[in-house]
Amino acid sequence: MRFNEHIEFTIGPQGTEPYKGSNHAAGYDIHAAEDARINPHLTIVVTTDLKVLLPYGSFAKLETWSSMAIKGLQVQGGIIDWDYCGELKVMIHNLTDYPYYINAGDRITQMILHQVGHPSI
User: Fold this and answer.
1) How far is it, in rounded angstroms, from Cα 75 to Cα 45?
2) FRET label pair with 57: which of 4, 83, 85, 107, CA 20 to 30 Å apart?
């Protein structure tokens, strides 16, 4: 098993390196690796061409950007466990009556790190 102390990203050829918008940002900006169309009232999975190695004892949560929420889009699910090794994919639901278009390179979610607590039961 791996026990890393820092977050590490593996970026594929279509991926964009995640970054924090400022030193005080809550999470990392995650970008779409491909163009996508989200039809009204449907959910699609958007690829990122990105893998993440989380610090030991943490998990990450994918959250909806407020700028996307105001347009009627919502990130679904989004818990990334510490031991997940696959590509990050983002489920986005369109709550509107109109299609929404995502371009490769668009910010589609924010990934926020959390510490896992293991209280005694």
Assistant:
1) 10
2) 107
Length of the chain: 121
Q: Which residues pair with 46 in a beta bridge?
A: 90
Instruction: Name the DSSP letter for residue 82.
Output: T
Residue 108, by phi and psi: left (phi above 0), alpha (psi -120 to 50) or beta?
Answer: alpha
> Which of 29, 99, 33 minimizes the C-alpha distance to 64?
29
Residues with Cβ within 8 Å of residue 23, at least 6 apart in sequence: none
Per-residue pLDDT of the chain (121 residues; tens, 9 = 90+): 556 678 889 999 999 999 998 999 999 999 999 999 999 999 999 999 999 999 888 999 999 989 999 999 999 988 999 889 899 999 999 999 999 999 999 999 999 999 887 777 7
CA atoms within 13 A on the CB side of 6: 2
Domain architecture of the chain: domains with CATH: 8-15+27-115 (2.70.40.10)
Query: Which distant-in-sequence residues (6+ apart) come within 8 Å of 46 by Cβ?
Result: 32, 33, 34, 36, 89, 90, 91, 92, 102, 108
